[in-house]
From TrEMBL:
The lineage of its organism: Bacteria, Bacillati, Bacillota, Clostridia, Christensenellales. InterPro entries: PRTase-like (IPR029057), PRTase_dom (IPR000836), Pur/Pyrimidine_PRTase (IPR050118), PuR_N (IPR015265), PurR_Bsub (IPR010078), WH-like_DNA-bd_sf (IPR036388), WH_DNA-bd_sf (IPR036390). This is Pur operon repressor. Pfam families: Pribosyltran (PF00156), PuR_N (PF09182). The keyword Nuclease does not apply. Belongs to the purine/pyrimidine phosphoribosyltransferase family. PurR subfamily.
Length: 271
């Protein structure tokens, strides 16, 4: 590779770090990649770090020592959180989303990359100190959001299935009562997906009664895995007592009135 200018190195380092959040890169990685001295690269990183702080684009963390390096921390400022959550709340409050039986249509929101990525950043901010070994969700609508959160942690995603598949090998299966539909359902998890003693972060798109999330907690007990946190994008206000405790949510769905064609949602972003 030809010798790169500082501008080119700055662009390259920034792209690598932001495309791989939470992944630690030793300076030697960039030294070999760009053919530059570590002292020169330290100056480059200092420039990037200052720019990110001034523009509130997240943080560049520098860890010293033999096992140190640099990584991108995808922290979001309060104004950016308020703006994106406010936009989602406005969309959710549209009465045309009400479905028969008092349910609400949310599939488009959880399939829009911009919304999913921003909600993932917020959830990451809730749990970034928990150091999970993997992120877990249950199929299907929660998968895009959980995958985005897993990416920010640089950890794998594990998906509990409603029906086991031959391609997953032997599985552990349990029955549970869904909090929203009040129906008995099945959840399966491949024995190859996780290991005893690991730490799990539970992420899902929605919580009403909490039956599905409770089932994930019980599944983790079967594998002797510690749940370090539980986060959802949307939580219903009622019932106020869920089947899981200490979960964190981004948005509260306060009321759905099918007869009056009325929806009320609010943000839970306080800090």
């Amino acid at each position: 590779m030809d010798v790169l200018t500082r501008k080119e190195r700055l662009c390259g380092i920034t792209a690598i770090l932001t495309n791989n959040p939470s992944r630690l890169y030793p300076l030697s990685h960039f030294s070999e990649l760009f053919g530059a001295a570590k002292s020169t690269l330290s100056e480059d990183v200092a420039i990037i770090k200052e720019a990110f702080e001034r523009l509130q684009l997240g943080e560049i963390e520098v860890l010293m020592g033999a096992s140190g390096g640099i990584k991108y921390i995808p922290r979001m400022d309060k104004q950016s959180k308020d703006e994106i959550v406010g936009e989602i709340v406005e969309k959710l409050s549209n009465s045309s989303r009400i479905l028969p039986g008092g349910f609400i249509y949310t599939a488009d929101i959880f399939l829009t990359p911009r919304y999913v990525d921003k909600m993932a950043q917020i959830l990451w901010g809730f749990f970034y100190k928990t150091n999970p070994d993997f992120v877990i969700t249950v199929e299907a609508k929660g998968i895009p959001l959980a995958m985005a959160v897993a990416r920010l942690f640089d950890k794998p995603l594990v998906v509990a299935r409603k029906e086991s598949k031959m391609t997953e090998g032997s599985v552990v299966t349990l029955n549970y009562l869904s909090g929203s539909s009040k129906r008995l359902q099945t959840m399966s998890l491949s024995k190859r997906a996780v290991k005893e003693g690991q730490r799990a972060l539970v992420i899902d798109d929605f919580i009403a009664g909490g039956g599905t999330l409770r089932a994930i907690f019980e599944m983790m007990k079967e594998f002797s895995i510690t749940v370090v946190g539980c986060g959802v994008a949307i939580a219903t206000k009622n019932p106020s007592k869920k089947r899981v405790e200490n979960y964190k949510s981004i948005i509260t769905l306060e009321e759905i009135n099918e007869e009056m064609s009325f929806i009320k949602a609010s943000s839970n972003i306080l800090e």
